[in-house]
Amino acid sequence: MALVAETITYSYGGGSSSVPPPEPAVDGFSASFEHGRVSAIMGPNGCGKTTLAKLLVGILKPLHGEVILDGTNLVGLTLAETGKRVGLVMQQPGRQLFCTSVKDEIEFGLKCLELSQEETEQRKNKYLEYFGLQQYEDRFPFELSTGEKQRLVIAAVVCMQPDYLILDEPTSALDRGRKRALGALLRRLSKDENTGVILISHDEWFVSEYADGVTVMDHGRIVCRKESMR
Amino acid sequence: MNENRAIKKGRLRILDPRPKLMLMASASTACMLTSNLWYIASILVVLVVTLLIGGMNLSLLWNRAKAIFMLIIMLFVIQTLFFGMGRADAAPLLHIGGFGFVYTGGILLAAMLSLRLLVIVFAGLILLEGEIRDYLLALVQMKIPYTFAFMVVIGLHFLPILREEATNVYCCMQLRGKDFKKLKLTGKIRAYIGICLPILVSALRRADEMSIAMETRGFRSQPRRTYMRQLKMRGADIALTILFPAIFVGLYFLVKFL
Q1: Is residue A95 within 8 Å of residue B168, measured between CB atoms?
Q2: DSSP 3-state assignment of B37?
Q3: Do B176 and A157 touch (CB under 8 A)?
Q4: Which one, out of A160, A221, B81, B172, has a CA that is 20 to 30 A from the CA of B42?
């Protein structure tokens, strides 16, 4: 059981006979992201990492190839169905917030999962505390700082306890202490709860410290892969 | 890319910006000056015909304005259902559990507001058929102060970004488990309002940040600026600039006397 990308290719714009086709953002990418592992993806700006993240959750549909989620092709699933199993934390935290309070933001996904009131309350309190957000629970999310917004978005996605978790630059606005806390959480999720974590990052320290394996991309292709970091 | 090709082929693209600005201004002003349904509908027909003659294909049109069309449909339904509720002088067409819904006045008002919104949307779509820089130049050549012209143009420039942000929030909501296809109408309305909130906040915040960035980069530091390029109106451009408002005036009298 894994989240598998099979030679997926994606290009922004289709090309035509008179206009040459643009260079694909993701070009024949193949990888298998397994449960219980933290897999990192690295590469220079514009190499297709964010596009890959969007392909892996089904926001974008690959032009060629397919994404298989535990044996099911993503094409047959709605975004809501995929989202309950694959969590995505996007690069810009401010663009993923849409509720009027911090606690509503965390409860949103839990209510969609139709959990009991007790379970919802328990998970909400647990993650508010873990990410140091309990004092802001009634605040308007857009009033928070970038780092606080980033922690809130991660908390809102992680609390849904997805089978796979994709984090796009999750440490860009975090201080060293928060990075360590996030790294420890990712490690615990992968080892104790068997979550497959896909970590897209430029942070070499964070990747070397917390990832089990790393894939390096350039121009939409894999240029190198290291299965074990230890 | 295909979309770009479709735009490049369009006749509206090669038109001077001024007839397009005149069309937009005269259509949106005309639809606001009257509440006659037939007149507003005829303005809408003129705009649709102009877009089609101008070379925009219908599927492209639908893709660009799909979300706004859905919003207009929802506004129509809400207005129709609830306008006039509790008014003693209006007779409801529908009774549910002792409450009256759907009034003739509500249907007419909803139709008028929806048509007006459609006119504004279609007029805006005509403006999308052109380069933003050309509109700025056209407004300045029409003696509009550069500061105001720049503000109008920057507003237009950010429309696609706002659309992208709305799509982003829509995807995020779905990824957190909200299945829009399974939602009832009231749930859908609540969810769409939820999408509007972050867009509004981000637009206000961006405006604030942009004004600071512009000031720090010397915006308005010179009293007057010059331009390398000058737009020149051809005969057809001048004719259309006069023709568009003339059509709307003509239609007004035609509808009035029919």
Answers
A1: yes
A2: helix
A3: yes
A4: B81
A residues 172..191 contacting B (CB < 8 A): none
Mean pLDDT over B127-145 rounds to 87
Token pair of B166, please?
A: 């709305």
Burial bucket for residue A100 (CB in 10 Å: 0-12, 13-18, 19+): middle
Q: Are A21 and A11 in contact (CB under 8 A)?
A: yes
Q: How far apart are CA A164 and CA B90, in angstroms?
A: 57
Q: pTM for the full model?
A: 0.74
Q: Do B1 and A14 touch (CB under 8 A)?
A: yes
Phi, psi (5° rounding) for residue A16?
-155, -175
Give A44's DSSP letter: S
Q: What is the ipTM of this complex?
A: 0.85
Contact at CB, A19 and B5, closer than 8 angstroms: yes
**Residue numbers of chain A with a pLDDT score lower than 50:** 15-17
> CA-nearest residue of chain B to A99?
B194
* Interface residue A20 vs chain B (CB under 8 A): no
Q: Are the C-beta atoms of residues A166 and A200 closer than 8 Å to each other?
A: yes
User: How far apart, in whole angstroms, are the C-alpha atoms of residue A62 and residue A54?
Assistant: 10
* Run of H or E including A89: strand A86-89
Residues of A in contact with B166 (CB under 8 A): none
